[in-house]
Specification:
This protein is α+β, with helices and mostly antiparallel strands and 133 residues long. The chain is built from one helix and eight strands. It has one domain: Immunoglobulin-like, CATH 2.60.40. It has one helix spanning 2-20, and strands spanning 28-32, 36-37, 55-63, 77-80, 85-86, 89-90, 103-107, 116-123. The strands form three sheets. Strands 3, 4, 5 and 8 form a four-stranded antiparallel β-sheet that branches. It has a two-stranded antiparallel sheet with strand order 1-7.
C-alpha cells in the first residue's frame, strides 16, 4: 500500500511540474545587408524619369511564407531606410543619413523557419532624407 501511495504521489508531482513548465520563448534579430542598387536610366517603375535623379530609399517587409505573394501586413516586422543614394549606388556598412547597414528587424517569437522577404525600392522626391511612411 505504501508503494502505491508513493507511486501516486510521484505521478501527481510529475503532472504538477508539467503544468508549471514554461515553454521556451524565442527572440533574435533578422539582419539584411544591402550592397548596391542599380537604376542606370534613373526612371520610376512607371518608366517616367526622376527629376533630377531617383533619390532611393528601401522598405523591407518580413512576413509569413507565401508560395504566391499577395499584399498584406508585415507579420514579422518591417523597416525603412533613409535615402541612401541617387539612381545607381553602392551601400556602405554604415549607410549615410543615419541609417544602419545591415538592416535589423528584431523579433520576440519562435522563428517560424520559412518566411517571405519583400524588398521595395522607393523614390523620395524633395530634399528630405527621411521618407514619409
Amino acid at each position: 500500500m505504501a508503494a502505491a501511495s508513493r507511486s501516486a504521489s510521484g505521478w501527481a508531482l510529475l503532472l504538477l511540474v508539467a503544468f508549471w513548465q514554461q515553454r521556451a520563448a524565442g527572440s533574435g534579430v533578422f539582419q539584411l545587408q544591402l550592397r548596391e542598387f542599380a537604376n542606370e536610366r534613373g526612371v520610376l517603375a512607371s518608366g517616367r524619369p526622376c527629376e533630377p535623379g531617383c533619390r532611393t530609399f528601401f522598405r523591407v517587409c518580413l512576413m509569413h511564407f507565401q508560395a504566391v505573394f499577395s499584399p498584406g501586413p508585415c507579420t514579422f516586422g518591417s523597416v525603412s531606410t533613409p535615402v541612401l543614394g541617387t539612381n545607381s549606388f553602392a551601400v556602405g556598412d554604415d549607410s549615410s543619413g543615419g541609417g544602419r547597414n545591415p538592416l535589423q528587424l528584431p523579433f520576440n517569437f519562435t522563428w517560424p523557419g520559412t518566411f517571405s522577404l519583400i524588398i521595395e525600392a522607393w523614390h523620395a522626391p524633395g530634399d528630405d532624407l527621411r521618407p514619409g511612411e
